[in-house]
Amino acid sequence: MSGPALPPAPLARFGGRLATGLRDVTSDPAALDSTGFWAVAYDFEGRLTCARFDDVRPAPAPPRADGWLGPHPGSWHSSLDHAAYTEGVRRIREHIARGEVYQANLCRVLSATLPDPARSDIDALTGLLAHGNPAPYAGTLRLPGHGVEIATASPELYLRRDGDIVSSGPIKGTGRTEADLLEKDHAENVMIVDLVRNDLGQVCRTGSITVPDLCAVEKHPGLVHLVSTVQGTLREDAGWPELFHGTFPPGSVTGAPKSSALRIIAALERAPRGPYCGAVGWVDADRGEGELAVGIRTFWIDRTTADAPVLRFGTGAGITWESDPEREWAETELKAARLVAIASATGTN
Fold first, then answer.
1. What is the spatial distance between Cα 63 and Cα 117, in angstroms, rounded to a whole number?
2. Please, what CATH class does the domain formed by 11-58+75-343 belong to?
3. Using one digit for the tens of pLDDT, what is the confidence trace for 22-51?
4. Sequence spans of domains, the chain
5. Separation CA 15–CA 38 (nearest Å)
6. Rounded to an integer, what distance in angstroms lies between the CA atom of residue 295 and that of residue 218?
7. What confidence tens digit (pLDDT) does each residue in 254-290 have?
8. Angle value at C-alpha 162, between 161 and 165, nearest 5 degrees
9. What amino acid positions are annotated as catalytic residues?
């Protein structure tokens, strides 16, 4: 009789590259300024996982194989239902009216049990996402021995580093088409750009912060976003620890002022965000390069439950004074619908 199946080998897929041969894992961000190729997952609540791999080679997305059997489409549950979410929007507007915050991101986490643990390979889900929802910062990090199994189809850049040049690409403003974007969306984007400028200003040389693009319209499968670019030059004494300290969690998924927004959303949200709204990506320490996405449009597997592994996915919206609760709920539905449908399919479809 054969024994239980061995867990799949650790790997990472980012930027058209496949990394295998796990060497070491650390939670110390200073390691990203050392040597080697690292995959990075930074949970919204602050858990940092940096995994160094020995073998890195160009590789396409994995094929749509039978390693994935998704949840039943009707089995997903939300940490905030429609009533709780719209009430949360109204509560945030009350905080805005009192002058405590200008904008806050309200999120909910969708969860569903995976029906077959033997067909729950996060890399196979990555293949489905790559074919059904291509994204500029798509990737995978599979570290089963460390509780990290993430597949992202993120469209948003958290941090890109090329030597001492760093940039961020905050997204604020979402619609089915460009015609759906409102003045509220543009105002929200500009607000978050100011926040990101301030964050990067903590670690960049004085006078080096620029905004090469403001409120550019980007088209993605099923929706459009307003995207800006903020760029700066790192101080000589600043590296990845300082970058994280100054900018994490990303401003686009928290709010402004960030400290007030974090306090408010912590009181309203009922589930930890985990990798969602955190950061995921890669760092090549030898070249002084890296690219980390904001962990949106992101799935992760939780195997700590007793009965069966659970697949989770986060969705949210930025709330301002002009926000309509029903419209914000609809935005969270729009962001989730396509991806949840893909993950609920089988790998043979």
1. 19
2. alpha beta
3. 999 999 999 999 999 999 999 999 999 999
4. 11-58+75-343
5. 13
6. 18
7. 999 999 999 999 999 999 999 999 999 999 999 999 9
8. 75
9. 156, 172
